[in-house]
Structures are given as C-alpha cells and as structure tokens.
Amino acid sequence: MGIPTVPNVLSNKMHVEKFPLSPPSLEELAEQLMAPLAANYEHTTINVVPCPDLRKPPFNLATEGLSGNEKIADIGGQPNLFPRPRLDCKFSFIEIAKAMEMDSAKGSLIGAGAGPFHVVGCNCELVPNLSWEAGLVNFDNQTRYARIVPDSGAVDVDRSTSLEFALMANLYGSLGEPGPVIKITARGRKGSEKSFTECIQRALKKAYGDAQTVSLGGTFLVKSGTARYHVMPDFPPEHKLPFKNSKQLNDWLTFHDFESPIVCLSVLHSGDPGKTMGLRLEHTHCFSPLGQNSGGHYHYDVDDTNEAIEYEAYFNTAKVIYRVDRPTETQPRD
C-alpha cells in the first residue's frame, strides 16, 4: 500500500506531505516502553499522569502542556547540510505553523533544528520553544540557540529573537493545553544503551516499527549526571566542501560534556511510514535552565555505566505527521 500523503504547496516554496496517525493509548504505550527502559536503568517508572505546568522551572517552556491538536513536522533534513550546506533553505515558524494546519488562535511548537544563520551571523543549533495567541501574532518566544564562538571555541547559548530557522527542524505542535501525558523517570544506567532518547526510540521500533508509526513529542530533564552534546560550528570554507563521509562530518562537529540540569526538547518516531518520508527518527536539542552556556544536540550520557544519570520526561503522541520540503539528496556514506 502506498502512503496516503496529501501534497500541498505554500508560498510557492514549501512542499507538504501529510500522513495521519492512529496512536495507541498512552496506557498501552507506557506498558510497551517499560521493559526496555527497565532493562537499561536501575530505577524506572512509566505512568500516565496529568502534565505539570511546563512553563514553571525547571522546564521553562513557552507552553503549559502538550495536549490539543497534537502533530509533528519534519522540515528539510540533514541533506540540506551535508554534503554541502544549502544556504537557500530558510524557514519561518509562522509559515510552518500554517503548513501544519495549526490553530492560529492558540498553539505551541517545541523541538530541535538548525538556527537562523542569516540572523545570528553564523551556523548554530536551535532549540525551538514558542507559543502564540490571537492569530499567530502574539508570541511568547523562549527559543534558544547554541553557537561556537569563533576565536575561543567556547559554547555560547542565548535567546533567539527571531521566528526563523534554516536547513532542518523536527517540531512537536499542540494547543499547549494541560492533559494526560506519559511521565518517564530513569535513574542509574546499567545497560549498554547510553542514549535515553535512543532507548525510547528503539523500544518504539520494537513494539510498532514502520507498520504502525508511533510518534512522540515532548521534553525531558537531565536531572543529575553528565551527558554529551554537539554544537555545530560555522559552515566550513568552500575549499573544505563537500563533506565526503561521516568521519569528516564528526571531525567538523564540536562535542561537549555538560553537567545537569539540562532541559531537552525531543521528537521521536517508531519508524518511517512506508519507509519513504525520509523521517529523522530521533532529534533532541537542549538548553540550561540556569542560563549557563550549556546546550546543543543531545547524544548520550558519559561513561560505560552511569550510576549518577537521572532523567525525568513528559511525552505525548501525535495524530499526524507533516513532511515539509523533503530533500531528494542523500546523506554522506561511511
């Protein structure tokens, strides 16, 4: 069977494919996730609970909850950066909200993406975190970006005043209302899966795979312990392009170990419907709730086993995926 996508063109630029989802109940999902996470962490709880007010510390989000008109968008993608940056790929959160058929009166977007290099002045990681009221004009923009300071190589995290981004993003959208969510706590890693989000994604894949795509969006706190993050530096000079393979890519990225607490915004999929949408199955970007220069793209906790690591997460399921401007280029091969 083919994928029931709905092509659409907005502003003569964006091509939008729409895929409706039929998510399981949160109770079923919690049951499916429990065994894989319990095998990886010494202490794990997974429950369906009322979402706390995520606007309050330590999460400091622009949205109160994760419920109402729940949907996910995968915009652009890694092929817009590799093997060669496509500097013409610029997007507006306002236009993306319209492409996602969000309610203009009220809504929110959170997730992970590439920052507006044309606004910030250099390539950077973006932590989208915004909500709106009254017709996509009254914004609470709590978005952050993480960049590499050219002279020192230090990480600089700051608030983004822009409603734009570039290259790629994975976004969870909702009305931002309170409602039931899955709460996951995990402490003391004993297994070999060092990434909290990949542990969840692989559990989703095992339970549902591509046959019944299950998509999650939400936030988690690295409550204690240390984890590793990358921050993209500015784009390489032309004579060092194109990227030829993953090693060259990893040599270009900068990696950093940051102490908790760190707030992470995440989008996850069990699989790619029909294996034709080119979905990024896991993408997580983060910032320090204490205002420190800590954040970027989450990878995993450090050390072979990590008794100190602790996570607290809140996720909800999406009812539709929007694939926006899916690239035709392939990613670099190893």
Automatic annotation (TrEMBL):
SMART domains: DUF1907
Subunit structure: Monomer.
Subcellular location: Nucleus
Top-rank taxon: Eukaryota
InterPro entries: C11orf54_DUF1907
Source species: Talaromyces proteolyticus
Main location (coarse class): nucleus
Stated name of the protein: DUF1907 domain-containing protein
Listed GO MF terms: hydrolase activity, acting on ester bonds; zinc ion binding
Domain DUF1907 stretches: 32-324
UniProt keyword terms in alphabetical order: Hydrolase, Metal-binding, Nucleus, Zinc
Pfam families with a match to the protein in the record: DUF1907
GO cellular component: nucleus
